[in-house]
Amino acid sequence: MSLFFIIICEDKKIFVSLQSDNWLTNFKKAETMKYLQSVLPIAFLLVFSNCQHRPTLHPCLSLTPEAAQQIAQSHGKYPVFDASFEYARRTADEALAKPIDVPVPKHAAGGYTHEQHKNNYYAMYYAGIMYQVTGEERYAAFVRDMLLEYAHLYPTLGEHPYKGSPVPGQLFWQTLNESVWLLHTAMAYDCVYEYLDADVRTHIENDLLFRVAAFVENGTEANYATFNRMHNHATWANAAVGMTGYATGNRDLVDKALYGSEKDGKSGFLLQLEELFSPEGYFTEGAYYLRYAIWPFMLFAQTIELNEPELHIFERRDGILLKAVNALLQQSYNGEIIRANDALKKTFSTQEIVAAVDIAYWASHDPQLLSIAQQQGSFVLSSAGITTAKAIAAGKAEPFKYQSVLYHDGANGENGGLAIIRSSKASDFMLVFKATSHGLSHGHYDKLTCSLYDNGHEILTDYGAARFLNIESKSGGRYTHENDSYAMQTVAHNTAVVDCKSHFGGDYDTSMKYSPTIIGNLVVNDSKQPYITAIVSATDTTAYLDKHVRMKRTMALIETEETEFPFILDVFRLTAPDCHTYDLPVHYNGHLINSSFPAKKNGTVLYPMTGNYGYQHLWNEGETTLTTGNAWFTILQDDRFYSVITTVEPTAGAKVFLVRSGANDPDNNLRSEPAVIFRQEGKAEHVFASVIIPHGLFDPNLELTKGAQSPVEQIRVIETTDSTTTVELTLQNSKKQIILSDEMMSSGY
Amino acid sequence: MSLFFIIICEDKKIFVSLQSDNWLTNFKKAETMKYLQSVLPIAFLLVFSNCQHRPTLHPCLSLTPEAAQQIAQSHGKYPVFDASFEYARRTADEALAKPIDVPVPKHAAGGYTHEQHKNNYYAMYYAGIMYQVTGEERYAAFVRDMLLEYAHLYPTLGEHPYKGSPVPGQLFWQTLNESVWLLHTAMAYDCVYEYLDADVRTHIENDLLFRVAAFVENGTEANYATFNRMHNHATWANAAVGMTGYATGNRDLVDKALYGSEKDGKSGFLLQLEELFSPEGYFTEGAYYLRYAIWPFMLFAQTIELNEPELHIFERRDGILLKAVNALLQQSYNGEIIRANDALKKTFSTQEIVAAVDIAYWASHDPQLLSIAQQQGSFVLSSAGITTAKAIAAGKAEPFKYQSVLYHDGANGENGGLAIIRSSKASDFMLVFKATSHGLSHGHYDKLTCSLYDNGHEILTDYGAARFLNIESKSGGRYTHENDSYAMQTVAHNTAVVDCKSHFGGDYDTSMKYSPTIIGNLVVNDSKQPYITAIVSATDTTAYLDKHVRMKRTMALIETEETEFPFILDVFRLTAPDCHTYDLPVHYNGHLINSSFPAKKNGTVLYPMTGNYGYQHLWNEGETTLTTGNAWFTILQDDRFYSVITTVEPTAGAKVFLVRSGANDPDNNLRSEPAVIFRQEGKAEHVFASVIIPHGLFDPNLELTKGAQSPVEQIRVIETTDSTTTVELTLQNSKKQIILSDEMMSSGY
Q: In this predicted complex, what is the ipTM?
């Protein structure tokens, strides 16, 4: 099926191509038709509205004249909003107090010219808002003068002198930052548009804004490719170019932003809404990059809503943008965004999530979002922010509903998924089970990995990224070498490694082709077994295609009357035609205080673990041959103990290693963090059946210690098949058999 | 001068010996006379009141009948007090719901019988309070029944089977815990005294309380020695025995507690007030052990005040107990007690400091204490606690005045001292400079050491103790071997090590003999030099007596218009007749992100540092020969950078080592923590002139980095003598000469 619409209107060409087998690859027919139904009227409306020369009132991107007036009138009424406003005013005033500094680009992230150009766009952005809210012309004059400086500089620039990005910019070392600059600058320009003389406008638009937009869109082959990718960098580029288009009334830029460089809908912002999110709003790059991408997504969406409400941008794909904001918040723990893929520590109080939540509230009036906005403690200075602040002041906030949830990955939801399991009893107990697709360039080789949070801490950890963002002395603030060689590798995660080799041999292209299979659904409070209050399972047969290894991991939340805290039963089953070495690393956050095996640390010399794929970055602090069928260790974190108990087969060769990251790391780019690696040698089939259990109390204020021993003493696999595994847990006063079978995952959640 | 008073009254002998050259060693004549003036009338009063058989109302130790009534009436009025009460009631109710369990002693700290006996004394203590407040007899019956169980068990006990203390107990592995048990049990007994039949009382007193008291006081040679020491264990023992005496009306026990086993005043509680504190209230063992000792000090003092107000216990030595409480609070940072000597992480919300602050308020009505009590969030359930809670509710709280302060050490204030320097501009910037005496058995070999706190974190760290309190799997919860071999050693601190050997060769007896000399005073805002807002200095000539090394360290708080944050100028001057290797370790909390020297980490093999005295516990992660006169490194902690810049003499041989604790630590008893060691070889005289400076901003929410480079670029020693050192600091836009001379410390503070 192919459909073409070509509409010519006042020398603007709107070219809409709808090809179900190409553009809409992987799209189901029904969804295609649904999509067409939504797109067709919009395409016509677009053309219609555009052809009518609808006069544009400025500002029109995120602030509006009405919002500016509301903000001016709200002064003193909403203390937290006032604080955000004061921060903006201070930033603007500080910038106005200094000579304008638009340096010739030189440094990488964290370096002087990089940071100065960042400061400049914030200064212009805040000054623009100040002009709109206070009416003081000095702010507008500042924005104008700085824009003129940039209009003077920009035409003289070539490729940024700091080489380090495959997509180099001109003002910045990478075009990504150029997009962010343009997006903010467009908002600043929008705010002072009416203040500027027509000839100044023409000068700034022709010598600066259109030039930057053209550079971002198509200035280099790499830029063109990026602008038309399905990736967060493209979102930034599209949003920046599109918002420049709306601010300047340049329809060409808007259309490229929405439909791609070729305006054929084969790329561009609207297609990203289809392809970068799963139907439930999961972003394929993971929560950390969703945090970053949600900013241009929501800012541009708000601009579109303000300028072309006919596009119903927030209703597209059943409200995919609002689902994405909710999914991002679900993927947080005590306000901290979970670490998966290339992630650093970030909370949901980052400016991008503040903007996203405010805009989501502005678009949806979902009262749950208000409680998040309250916790964030700041607002975006736009119609979205003031609307949100007013709603909170009106007492409309409701608690955000954190849930146990499974997010399928992939545009059609068929590329695995990520489950979050929360205990309904212990609100701070949260398991993350990741069985997603690779997740583009920031993805890790970590099929079926997990991380565990409890009592305010990450307990089983995901290393995240080896990067020092904006720290120039650390690889210019970019990802360090060790991100590739360690952080991305399988052994840096809590999942199985076969023969000491990463999933897919650490090959990006191969990993991008495959994804795990979620078995049925995440099931919560609906299991056929007692004790199991949530269960999720996934298989992967692709990570070790050449060895024909089948990995299956089932993770269940267990609650019994005998155990004080909920705990995790984790059955990781590995099967293959031949014998292999199966490693299960457990990265923990705490101090190892006890173990079933003699955990003697090497004292006089340390060597790295043997191998590559990240093993070379782990100091072997000690290793022991295991002689019994169970191995456990206990750590202390804060006022609670945690034990991990797992099954091994000593007769086949079982070992345990105490390791610590930091070997082969000459530039000290890795954090020093401990892990235990359980190793099963020489088996074709092995089940690491584990219990991960919080217990006891270590109260330094009362000097009380209780329950330092795990209440689950032993775990034993009674029976295991491809579809069902039965384990027996020995507790202090009872033995419990627990069956985990595929059938249990068949009910919905 | 010798004075003897012997007064015989109803077969009780009160023997007061005052010998200025023996008992009051080191006491100035004037102070002796002052003391005599205060003691003499009290001695007579004591005898008088005692001889009158003043009838005792129970309870009389910390709760009183009036306080119990007030607590009962206050229910629902003071939510935080209510919470403390509910905690106590729940603890008591949980104990009442279980069968009484008084097991035959077996385990060490953290183990079952140890924790059960601890639980038991808390259960009795809380049940006693519940009986007094609610009048419900089941609580009193529970206390009685448990006391009877103990009265049955105790006479059968010998030395505790777990050998591990030089002062073994019977119920517990060490007598210290037996004292704590007795103190709480005495309070419980006091609460149910009136409830018990006379014959039951006699049975419990004779078969339990007097037996435990006798054991603690004189049951073994070690106990006798401990009871009569000047040490926190003696404070516990004295308080426990004394409170048992008051509860039972046994004057013999009271007198032994107050005046020592021989009742001659040559030991005992009253002498401890003279000897364990400096005139300003500094406790010679340091803040962490003051935290522990303050509990029996204040509890017993309150008992004395309630029973013998004529002793004016809280006025003794110019209010030394109240000064000690204030000094303890001054030695905290954001509520955390500073780590010096054998210290673990503790906040001022521990039950012992809660009790101390409440009692101090009860005794002094100092409104500053109320703001601390508010932050503590709990109260002791006694007349002190309810008085404090009422005062807070009445709005009497005033902010606690944190100050820059120098505490002299030693009973007469002549054994060095500890300075705390706080910036008046940046309220969370705090330097601790420790130039005290050894501080008894929990002291470390760390003359002239320092630690630095800023922005909510410990930045230059004191390792504290290598101990896992109450964790049985870690050396039975006691100090681990590595406490001696690493944590106590000089290299584990931020002070100079000569020829890789600890101060005093790590010999306790030698170290106990000497202390550094504070030069003049801590001077705040009164310096002859600009920029210096506080300065303190000390010398030590005893740590390396055999090598005749003179160590002098001067630390100044510097504030300039060019630097955003206050910073430390640290001049550590080492002089000796011969050439030595001078090491200056800098233990830091953060990630090393930049350095002036190539900080390449060893990648393929790690060996410990060469040597003993703690060096064997440090992995040598990398070493470099320094070739310029300055060496600096920068770390990132939270959202701020910190640089340490120091002077070395490369021509004489200068090196830097990156190290990390954890070598030769088979049982994983050490935390893995990094340090940099600056080494100057082959010099008789060397000045490590250093700047320790916070700078910049790393804002992950705004993705902003500012000022990652130290604003102080260089430090140079221009001139140095025994009394004066002049340094030149190179800042971005200026050079500043700063003179640090002994004269400057001559004004008072």
A: 0.89
